[in-house]
Amino acid sequence: MTEKELTETKSVLTPAEKTNIEEQFRLLMENSPRLKKKADRERVEKAFNLAFLAHKDMRRRSGEPYICHPLAVARIVSEEIGLGALSISCALLHDVVEDTDYTLDDIRQMFDEKTARIIDGLTKISGAFTDHSSSQAENFRKILLTLSDDMRVILIKLADRLHNMRTLGSMPADKKMKIASETIYIYAPLAHRLGLYAIKTELEDLSMKYRYPEIYEEIASKIRQNEKKRLSEINRFSLPIIQKLEENKIHFEITGRPKSIYSIWKKMQTKNIPFEEVYDLLAIRIIFDPKPRVSEKAMCWMIYSLITDIYLPKPDRLRDWVSKPKANGYEALHATVMGHDGKWVEVQIRSRRMDEIAERGYAAHWKYKGERSVEPQEKELDLWLKKIRELLENPNDNALEFLDDFKLNLYTSEILVFTPKGHIKSLPKNASALDFAYEIHTEIGDHAIGAKVNHKLVPLSYKLTSGDQVEILTSDKQRPQAEWLNYVITAKAKVSIKNALKTERKNHIRIGKERLERKLKSLNINTTAYVVRKLMNAYETLTKDEFYSKIGLGLLNLDDVEQILKQKSRNKLVKYWTLQFLRSKGTPQKKNNEANEKKKKEKDTVLLRDNPLEEEAGYVIANCCKPIPGDNVVGYLDKEKDTIVVHKSTCPTVVRLAAKHGDRIIPVRWTEHKLRSFLSRIRITGIDRLGILSDITTLISKQLDVNIRSLSVDVHDGIFEAIVDLYVHSTVHLNNLMLKLSKIKGIESVNREEYSGE
Ligand code: MN
Questions:
Q1: Is the pLDDT of residue 629 over 80?
Q2: Cα–Cα distance measured from residue 138 to residue 126, given in angstroms and rounded to the nearest whole number
Q3: What's the distance, CA 3 to chain centroid?
């Protein structure tokens, strides 16, 4: 078991514990909106009695009687998700089969088939996590497969996880970390996709609290400090709205939309901005009770119109999820208006019903529509689960890769587009025409050549928007292309293209290899590793696979082969990465009195070379995240050491520092430069000893960062002689290098040789 620790105990319950358990059960029965019928109440009572009996000798790691856990999960299922008798009883029984002597058959006999199936699903999920033989990703895959059987299994599992997260404090540190990571990786996105916003937010915050306790505490304390100011701003903004709505006899509630600690932290990272900038953005929510005989939609727009009489709207930020709800059921009207001091404020307008759906998701629909009606939302979710199932069952797919794609899908919001026949397809925001093609069928995606959107011809990369009507044009000759991956975002399209490319690539490599061998044979040249390497260099390919597949694809012209192999090596251009600081150390982002005079005179942009000869670059690479060229990076000015520390922009350390000292953040980016390098040859002689060769190569390639082209070593009678061909920028560079080499222990002489090529 991962999320619970139980200890057998023979000690009987104390009277206080008994009273508490009875009280919890009474609250469960009383607070449930959906336990009105006698039969339903009896079912829940029966489940409670069995769970109580089954767990009676067990305690949780915290010391409390075990039954408190299923009781709490049942209350979440009932009060926070809004499910009925069947789910409540399954929540009470969810650990019985796994942790006690009762079997699934017992449950089937005492209750019914449906109950047994749900309990079975819940037990299997726990099993997936305890199976140490398979990888984490593989476990998640199993969970998702189990989850897609019955919606109630997901919802009860989420409630179970929520209660375990709420009581995570008594777990040992390593388990805390593991459970908190699983939560953020899979359970929070699932809650999001099911529209359970309140639960999703709580899971995210709790997970962060255990994964990054310091950052969590820091942001939480900042929120406490700034709360007053924010409330007064919200009041100032809301006052005219309240007046106007009251004049129009609208019953409503207006609240400042609370931001969760996790969402603030995430924004700080993705937008690379300090806490204050994230927290500064105001957002309010208006929840109204509809007037009799006026539709909710009409009310939303009426309120919108009243607000925009007061504040100027930003037209491109209007979001209408009332006319077309999101696929997870979310309904609301979002607008952004210009508040005081030119600040943009987001306003969310919802009816009481919409608000409940937004907070409690899927299950809240029942309260308004009755459990028996099959509403479109339910169908939508079933379809989504079916899609996951299809993806999971694809045996070619790498489990981890899949999960990343899958997670992307969970977080993006939807657009709705139409087929030529008018059927609606739901796709993630920013999906392309090609995503749509794959959404319809893999065959259509694989052979797509273009699309018609609203009857106009567009490329496959065309980004769709809600309401588009899309027709895909295909050709039998078409094959999936590597660059297609740049403009598809759905997991289904990505997986299909990757699979197709893998197969194609293998073919190209085989064809390319054969073609090259034939060519060399016709020239009477043996295909040796040296020949292949030389050709690869000439054609600027990095790996053999790339080289052969390019030949296979006909991208490389083999007519030059003979000439290339005859050619002597020439000087070549070597790529260097440099860091470009978009602000110097001395120019602070905000006003800073300490800015020192000398530094002020410097240009705002300093170009620092990552060059072996310019060691006084004034920056260091952070040890915690070790960014390499190409990573998104950010500089942090370390005042004590007077140097810029370069971190990955996602590094938690720099995020924490940025939160504290936003003004010390220095924008920086990698740029690519080509420096001319020259091939030179040096001869090194000395007395052979163990490790001398490695000392030489380490000094040259690691410490001095010089590219070695070739190296040959000869040892006779204890005398060591090495010939090294390397790329240098200048004679100064070369002399410097030779001087350093001569200082290595055992080296007698280092001389420059006339380089004559091959
Ligand atoms: Mn449990």
A1: no
A2: 14
A3: 23
What residue ranges of the chain are covered by domains with CATH 3.30.460.10?
A: 220-360
Contact 622, 646 (CB under 8 A): yes
**Which of 5, 99, 120, 375 does the annotation list as catalytic?**
99
**What is the arithmetic mean of pLDDT over 61-84?**
89
Q: Where in the chain is the domain with CATH 1.10.3210.10?
A: 7-190
Answer whether residue 3 shows pLDDT above 70: no
**What is the Å distance from ligand 1's center to 215 Cα?**
29
pLDDT computed for residue 333 by the predictor = 94
| CATH class assigned to 7-190 | mainly alpha
| Per-residue confidence (pLDDT) for residue 577, from 0 to 100 | 62
Percentage of the chain with pLDDT > 70? 78
pLDDT in tens, 267-318: 888 777 888 888 777 889 999 998 888 899 999 999 999 999 999 988 778 8
At CB < 8 A and 24+ separation, what contacts does 332-337 make?
A: 332/300, 332/358, 333/300, 333/301, 333/303, 333/304, 335/304, 335/307, 335/308, 337/307, 337/308, 337/311, 337/312, 337/313
Which residue, 614, 608, 620, is CA-closest to 646? 620
The Cα 157–Cα 147 span in angstroms is 9
Residue 349 has pLDDT above 90, yes or no: yes
DSSP designation for 704? S
**Residue 359 CA, ligand 1 centroid: distance in Å:** 23
SS3 content of the chain, % helix, strand, coil (to 5): 50, 20, 30
71 C-alpha vs ligand 1 centroid, how far in Å? Answer: 10
Give the residue ranges of DSSP H helices in 55-149. 68-75, 85-93, 96-99, 104-110, 113-130, 136-147
Structural contact between residues 489 and 530, judged by C-beta atoms closer than 8 angstroms: no
Tokens 């199936």 -> residue: 117
CA-closest candidate to residue 434, choices 500, 495, 490, 477: 490
Mean pLDDT, the chain, as a whole number? 78
CA of 78 to the centre of ligand 1 (A): 16
Q: How far apart are CA 346 and CA 351, in angstroms?
A: 17
CA 254 / ligand 1 centre spacing (Å): 37
* Active-site hit among 57, 98, 562, 695: 98
Q: Is 99 a catalytic residue?
A: yes
Tokens representing 145 are: 């497969």
Q: Supply the pLDDT for residue 365.
A: 55
Report the 10 Å Cβ neighbour count for 255.
13
Fold of 678-753: Alpha-Beta Plaits (3.30.70)
Length of the chain: 758
CA 95–ligand 1 middle distance (angstroms): 6
Mean pLDDT of 352-370: 67
340 CA to centre of ligand 1 in angstroms: 49
Residue 72 has pLDDT above 90, yes or no: yes
- Ligand 1 center–CA 480 separation, angstroms: 46
The CATH number given to 220-360 is: 3.30.460.10
pLDDT value for 633: 84
Residues with CB under 5 A from ligand 1 (ion): 95, 160
